[in-house]
Amino acid sequence: MTTARAPLDPAACYQALLSRDARFDGHFFTAVKTTGIYCRPVCKVRTPLAKNCLFFSSAARAEGAGFRPCLRCRPELAPAALPHWSTQDASQKLAMQAMQLLDSAEALAGASLRVADLATRMGVSERHLRRILAQHLGVTPSQYRQTRRLLLAKQLLCDTALPIAHLAQLSGFASQRRFNSAFANHYHLTPSACRRAGQAASDVRLKLAYRPPYDDAALMKFLGQRAVPGLELCTFAEDSTGEFVRIVRMSVGARSHLGWVRMQFEAVEHRVHVQISDSLLPALPAVLQQVRWALDLDADPLAIEAVLARDFAHCAGWRVPGTWDGFELAVRAILGQQVTLAAARTLTQRLVQALGEPLVTPWPQLTHAFPTPDRLLQASPDDLGKMGIVRQRQKAIQALAHAVLHGGLDLKPGPQVQATVQALMDLPGIGEWTAQYIAMRALRWPDAFPAGDIVVQRRLGVRDGPQPARAASTLSMAWQPWRSYAVIRLWHGGSP
After folding, report:
1. Mean pLDDT score of the chain, rounded to an integer?
2. What percent of the chain is predicted at pLDDT more than 90?
3. Which of the residues are catalytic?
4. 456 or 139: which carries more pLDDT confidence?
5. What's the pLDDT tens digit per position in 77-127?
6. How many whole angstroms separate alpha carbon 460 and alpha carbon 479?
7. 485 CB-side CA count, 13 A
8. Where do the CATH 1.10.340.30 domains begin and end in the chain?
């Protein structure tokens, strides 16, 4: 079976379909000519005959060919097929990065992104980008965006009791009439036909799938060790899947929304249950995208293990934990420079309690949001010093806040990773280790490598040698383009 971005092999796809192999979930979709419906590889309906199957690399392509999504396996729940970063095809990588940006724009509660704007952000001409997208997506940008909107709406119809007018708006439609028309024309169904009985009107719980293997215990341990009291709560235990809850701030356009998000793993079904506070409903699509980034739900274990399995044989399923806000992660990385994990958590807790906005939640332990860039920029040196933050860290944090607010520094995943890393390193108090750490967790760059990390150098056996950072970088080349995943394994005790 090939990886997500290689040409699909119908015979291999059919074998994966027969075995309902969840490792290929989202990598391809099976359309059945006799029913006009397309499914995920994990669908539990009776397997169709091979002669009746067509295979598509994306839901957009399947729908562009006239097929409707299955109401049982629900293609909208499938993990995304991320760019295959090892590809040497520059046009393919460009197309996949553009797809990420289209998905990200779609996640912002209906925010639109013109192809001209997308081309400018990618640093290419509009004509070139249109040609590349047509070649690799097989559909136009507008068709791709329409599919994403409809699938998001279908998920909200199935999993929530939100009024149809409200979910139409959340999915990016200008009006309920336009949504009803698009839904009927595309799926030959009315929105109400997708409604499931029994949804509580005030209970917003959704599901997100991932590809196995996924070591949820390792990820929850990582998050639990770093959980900041008042901001985050991790209740994972060795004999249960547990849950992770935290306060988040999400922006939709010029408006900011404060609330909480609760996540629980369901390992048997390879999915995560997500519950959010009512206050975050206007930002629901953005919240779902952020959950996928924070828990690394779209990772491709097949591609990763093909590179790392030889050196890390017992670490299959280890993911790179993301973050909820790039600025927050960067500040926490600065506070964690040259101190222990416990000390960094204590400093962050003081910062949150002193400068974070208070919020009442169902959990008494969750009380404050992380401070905004504006709030940290306005904080006096005396206030920060009383928290135990030394002058050098104060300057770094406030320079970072100024760059985010006024310098155009964007700490979200996107195509300009190297430029962002360099912009970070140009700020006072942010060196190579901190910038690479931010790239790994906030920018979601799979090939980040903090060569100066002491633990990494020790695991690689180069700490006591000459130029340990250079030696570590040299040894890491064998793990490209998945060095971020190698770093996580080294930190958790793995050794090549």
Report:
1. 89
2. 66
3. 39, 453
4. 456
5. 999 876 555 455 677 777 777 777 777 655 444 455 677 888 887 788 888
6. 13
7. 27
8. 323-443
> Burial, 238: exposed, middle or buried (Cβ in 10 Å; 0-12, 13-18, 19+)?
exposed
Backbone angles phi, psi at 38, to 5 degrees: -120, 150
90-159+161-194: in CATH 1.10.10.60: yes
pLDDT at residue number 496: 67
Give start-end residues of each CATH 3.40.10.10 domain in the chain: 10-77
Question: Is the domain covering 205-292 a CATH 3.30.310.20 domain?
Answer: yes
> pLDDT value at position 416?
80
Contact (Cβ atoms closer than 8 angstroms) between residue 420 and residue 439: yes
- What does the pLDDT look like over 292-333, one tens digit per residue? 999 999 999 999 999 999 999 888 899 999 999 999 999 999
Q: What's the rounded mean pLDDT across residues 178-182?
A: 92
**Helical H runs in 336-431?**
341-355, 373-378, 381-386, 391-406, 417-425
Sheet architecture: strand order including 232-234: 205-209, 271-276, 255-266, 243-252, 232-234
Taking the C-alpha atoms of residue 342 and residue 483, their distance in angstroms, rounded to an integer, is 26
Taking the model in full, what pTM does it have?
0.91
Reply yes or no: is the peptide bond before residue 481 cis, omega within 30 of 0.
Answer: yes
Beta-bridge mates of residue 68: 37
Q: Which of residues 283 and 402 earns the better pLDDT score? A: 402
Distance CA 217, CA 6 (A): 31
Cβ-based burial of 481 (10 A; exposed 0-12, middle 13-18, buried ≥19) = middle
Query: Is the preceding peptide bond at 301 cis, omega within 30 degrees of 0?
Result: no
What share of residues in the chain are helix, strand, coil (percent, to 5)? 50, 10, 40
Sign of dihedral through CA atoms 384, 426, 231, 276? positive
CATH number of 10-77: 3.40.10.10
Compare 425 and 128 and report the one with higher pLDDT.
425
Q: Is the dihedral of CA 121, 123, 127, 132 positive or negative?
A: negative
What is the DSSP track for 407-430?
A: S----SS-S-HHHHHHHHHTSTT-
CA distance 9 to 169: 38
Q: What is the pLDDT of residue 285?
A: 87
What is the number of other CB atoms lying within 10 angstroms of the CB of residue 80? Answer: 17
> What is the chain's length?
496
pLDDT digits (tens, 9 = 90+) for 165-176: 988 988 888 899
CATH 1.10.10.60-classified regions of the chain: 90-159+161-194
Superfamily holding 323-443:
Hypothetical protein; domain 2 (1.10.340.30)
